[in-house]
Amino acid sequence: MNNLRGSVYFFDSGSLMGNRGYSLTELVLAMVVVGVVALIATPRMASQRRFLSQRSVVNEFIAAQSLATATAVRQGRIAELHIDAAARRYWIEVDTSMAGGGVIDTIGPVRQIQDPTASMSSTRTLLCYDAQGLATTVGACEEGDATVTFSFPAYSRTVEMTLLGKLLR
Fold first, then answer.
1. Owning domain of residue 126
2. Helix (H) or strand (E) holding 15
3. Residue 52 half-sphere exposure, CB side, CA atoms within 13 Å?
4. Is the residue at 9 inside a domain?
5. I need a surface site. Which of 23, 73, 113, 141 has the fewest CB within 10 A?
6. Which residues have CB under 8 Å from 143's CB, separation 6+?
């Protein structure tokens, strides 16, 4: 008698279950389905990417305005938000000297709008915020009620600032 205990038997699974590969027809059909899905999704994804890029332009300006008010409060002196709509850029300046002796420093980078399709317009060119973070008209500073519009080919977004420096979208 044969003792089969402890023996391992291997079977060729291909012979029991049939051929396990894919046919050329199945592969071509899968490639066609993937191609159709890609053709449908690509324009939508490009449109979504463009929309997010345009939204980030507006959000970066809002962040700069918030940084200007926070800098004014932190430094305890006037912070200026400069808007150069023709050149599509804006930046923040504040006197950073200990005694407020006129050492003007740019806070953060000068922000340039990178989207070539975007244009920018503003009702003001110099917005200032005092030590309480409120809009002020000291010196060359203009009224705080500004409207900044970012225009794109399909639509435009407007950011409004009130006299107190509050943002409205």
1. 24-168
2. helix 13-17
3. 6
4. no
5. 23
6. 124, 135, 137, 163
Confidence of residue 99 (pLDDT cuts 50, 70, 90): low
Q: How far apart are CA 30 and CA 117, in angstroms?
A: 38
Q: Look at residue 5 and tell me if it is in a domain.
A: no
How far apart are the C-alpha atoms of 18 and 73, rounded to whole Å? 76
Buried b (16+ CB within 10 A) or exposed e, 38-60: eeeeeeeeeeeeeeeebeebbee
> Sign of the CA dihedral 43, 44, 50, 53?
negative
Domain of residue 96, CATH code: 3.55.40.10
Structural domain count of the chain: 1
As given in the structure block, the two tokens for residue 21 are 């590969």
Strands 104-112 and 89-95: antiparallel
Nearby residues of 85 by Cβ (< 8 Å), 6 or more positions away: 120, 121, 122, 125, 148
pLDDT digit string, tens, across residues 145-160: 999 999 988 888 999 9
Residue 34 placed within a domain: yes
Strand partners, 128: 80, 136
